[in-house]
Amino acid sequence: MSRPTVSDLVASTGELATLPSVVVALLDLLKDTSTSAVQVQAVLERDPAMTANVLKLANSAFYGARRTIATVRSALVMLGNRSIATLAFATGMAPVLRRDLEGYGLDREAFWRHCLLTGAAAAWAADLGGIEDRRTEAFTAGIVHDVGMLVIDQWLTRTGTRLTPSTDESVLRASERAVLGFDHAEAGAALIEAWGFPAALVSALRYHHVPLEADIDPRFASAVAAADRVASVLGGPPTTDWPAEAVAELAGLGYFAADFDELRLDLDGDLDQTLAAATRPAAALI
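User: That's the sequence. What structure does it adopt?
Assistant: Structure tokens below.
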């Protein structure tokens, strides 16, 4: 059986090859720092289900609203345009990313939780790394950083191939390359480039395991890489101490593990609580 190229694999992903139109519209809004409340409201009104989910999350205790937020307009006024647009984007990405990965032996909730945790940690890392004006970009990159696994998993499932499960990313990537000749970072970068994501996010995904080699803005890629490591710890067995290898890896990227302790407390909840906490403006994550 011949191995597909990255472009072949992306082209054959079916529904993954294109994002829902509302999500594309939200992505366009997030690219523009001058996005208005009217623009965000107009996009959300195209998708009643998304609007309902956004309002449910906006009323979460994590946002600290003093009264019920009943309309999109109220949410925009109280929480801000970019916060609501980011929350809506993450909500819209849930159906895309919340899938079982049979070829990897991962269930949908574990995969989606890791995506959310990485998004939250990436926004936090952007703040710590002095690029706080790029929190929204970082959150977005973190949410989709492992989307290449979905691309590869479709091929693995079709061919009946299974990768040996491993929590060691280097082992997992080596397994992907042994089977396909490329890894999920390359596949993910190719997919989001096809989706129309900005070049900096494409680069961050391609190099999120080797961020200092990034061809565009290694500091931004390092924030995503640090977030991936932090999310792996936060999503693992409960612990009050950071594993020594995580401390060393974060230090190599310019971060102190202890600086993520507050984030650990914020994200100790179910998936909806995690998403609300990750996107609330007061938490300095967006």
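The chain has 16 helices and no strands.
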